[in-house]
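User: Can you help me understand a structure? I only have the sequence.
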Amino acid sequence: MPELPEVETIRLALEPHLVGRRFEDVEIRDPRLVRPFEPTAVAAELEGERVAALDRRGKYLIVRFESGRVLLIHLRMTGSLRHAAAGSLADDPHRRAVVKLDDGSDVAYRDVRRFGTWHLLEPEEVDEYLAQRLGREPLDRTFTARRLAERLDRRRAPVKAALLDQRTVAGLGNIYVDEALWRAEVHPLRPAASLDADEIARLTKGIRDALRTAIARQGSSLRDYSTPDGRRGRMQERFRVYGREGEPCARCGTPIDKIRAGGRGTWYCPNCQRLQPRSAQAARRSAKRPSRSSRHSSA
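Assistant: Let's start by predicting it. Here is the structure, written out as tokens:
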């Protein structure tokens, strides 16, 4: 599934081609893309709109028009966008929509599994729609260890499941949660509320570092994801744990293990990411070990 780095990569690639351009012609070939609305009606609403900005919020690509309206594109599992010069799009049985721009170029949307959505919103609907569904942006200055601690407080769910909840942190998915937890040395099954201040600080940094590294490498191409010019991302070459079951941990050499957490396949290092934190283990051992004075008195 495209996550924040993949959507941001698409945004950066499409921005110079879309901003300032008018939607000359729109063809929506798959009714599932815009349901419950009629594809022809949505296409007619989009035609003539001029793009003022191309933004991202979590995993949503946000096309902002000069009219104030917004087209939210969610790629879900297998959605992707391709930009091409006029008439140069190759045949594709998985193409679900095509937008012809006023410079003659085309933007095509393809989706093998057909779970992606296009949602056209009026200006007054946008902020509330996104606020109800998304937490803070992890690459914004407002995303701090204190803010993350507030979102995880009293959460009994495993930290992996809590981070997959888009209301906790916007844009994280299975890949980058695993990568962030490895960087933070936190076990994915730890109850979210059990993390101490140091672990929260490491996790905040781990999330940022995992995402920034992925954006620099244009995302992860595992199956269907590609950039708008058809190239593959390169982050999969730098995964620390995701998909690496049985391979040595880059930090300690222990074989990576795979479990289920939050209903998802989850990869982690059994040594670096212990379910029982080392500090708690040490405290438990200390509590069991009799003190010198108690040994002397019992004698």
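Now, to help you interpret it: The CA atoms of residues 72 and 211 lie 22 Å apart. The longest strand covers residues 51-57. Let me know which part you'd like to focus on.
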